[in-house]
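Researcher: We plan to redesign the surface later, but first we want a full-length starting point. C-alpha cells attached.
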C-alpha cells in the first residue's frame, strides 16, 4: 500500500491551504485572518515519541524541563532506559505512570525507520498498542514527525473549539463528529488542522483569552 503526500516545506503547506480555501469559504476566511500556515515538522524516532509522552498533562515549560534533564542524563534511547532503575527516571521528573509508559515504549521494539514508509492508518494502529500512546499522540506523531499531509487529530480540544467557532456550530463537535467533518478536507487534513490551530489562537485573542 502506498503512503500519501509528505509535507516537506512551507510551499507544501501553501498548496494545501490554497486547496482548502478554494473548497471551503470558511477556510478562505481563516486564511485571510491567519496568513500562511507554517510547516511544523519535528524529528521522528524514539526520542520524539518519548517526548510526546513526557508532555502529556503537564505544562510546556514543565515538559521542556523534564526532557532537558533526561537528555542531560542520556536517557533518551531504549538502550539507556533499559540500563537504569526507576529512581534514575524519577530523578528526571517522571511520574510513576510515565515511567511505566516510557519503559513500555522502550521495550516495544518499534521500527521507526519503517514507519516512514508505512501508510497513515497503519502508523496509528501500530503506535496505539503501546501503553501511554493514545490515538491523539499517534496522530500528532504522524502529522509532525512523519509529515503526513492527510492526518487529523479530532480529539484535540483546540481543533474542536476552532471548528465550532469557524463553522458557527451550536456546540463543540466531539471526536466522531469532527472526524466526519474532516473527511471533506482530505487529502490535506494535516494542513486543515494547522489552519484551525492558527485560527483558534486568533479567535481566542479576539475574545481576550490567552
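Model: Full-length starting sequence:
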Amino acid at each position: 500500500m502506498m503512503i500519501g503526500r509528505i509535507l516537506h516545506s512551507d510551499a507544501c503547506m501553501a498548496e494545501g491551504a490554497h486547496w482548502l480555501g478554494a473548497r471551503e469559504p470558511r477556510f478562505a476566511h481563516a486564511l485571510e485572518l491567519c496568513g500562511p500556515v507554517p510547516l511544523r515538522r519535528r524529528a521522528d524516532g524514539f526520542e520524539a515519541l518519548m517526548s510526546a509522552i513526557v508532555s502529556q498533562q503537564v505544562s510546556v515549560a514543565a515538559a521542556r524541563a523534564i526532557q532537558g534533564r533526561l537528555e542531560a542524563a542520556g536517557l533518551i534511547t531504549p538502550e539507556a532506559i533499559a540500563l537504569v532503575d526507576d529512581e534514575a527516571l524519577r530523578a528526571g521528573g517522571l511520574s510513576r505512570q510515565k515511567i511505566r509508559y516510557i519503559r513500555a515504549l522502550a521495550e516495544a521494539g518499534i521500527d521507526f525507520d519503517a514507519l516512514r514508509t508505512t501508510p497513515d492508518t497503519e502508523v496509528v494502529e501500530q503506535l496505539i498498542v503501546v501503553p501511554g500512546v493514545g490515538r491523539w499522540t499517534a496522530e500528532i506523531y504522524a502529522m509532525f514527525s512523519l509529515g503526513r499531509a492527510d492526518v487529523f487529530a479530532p480529539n484535540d480540544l483546540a481543533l474542536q473549539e476552532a471548528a465550532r467557532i469557524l463553522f458557527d456550530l451550536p456546540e463543540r463537535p466531539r471526536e466522531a463528529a469532527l472526524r466526519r467533518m474532516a473527511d471533506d478536507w482530505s487529502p490535506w487534513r494535516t494542513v486543515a488542522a494547522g489552519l484551525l490551530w492558527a485560527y483558534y489562537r486568533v479567535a481566542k485573542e479576539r475574545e481576550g483569552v490567552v
